[in-house]
Amino acid sequence: MPGFLSTSVCRDKALDFASSRGVLLVIRGLETVNAIVPPNSFVLVTPRRQVPEQEVILDRGINFIVESVLEATETSRREVHLRATGSGARQEGLSAQA
Fold this sequence. Notes:
7% of the residues lie in helices and 40% in strands. It has one helix at residues 11-17, and strands at 4-8, 23-28, 35-36, 41-42, 52-53, 55-59, 63-70, 78-86.
């Protein structure tokens, strides 16, 4: 299915959006795939609205390798560390940025 996924590269914002039992995805290697990085913006409906969100738009065809999984503790959420390894068909006008 063609299209894009949106995610934040700001850890604080990602934690704001995740539930207390959520999983934090840590993605590396975005410089190797189709990604659009719009300007920073503030998200006023989150608890830490003074922290700007750095959003990244990812091609849906991106493949990932799981590098590690850190289990949740009393003070942190579960983290899954991924490496982007490639994307679907490149589209005209997109640039890999990160």
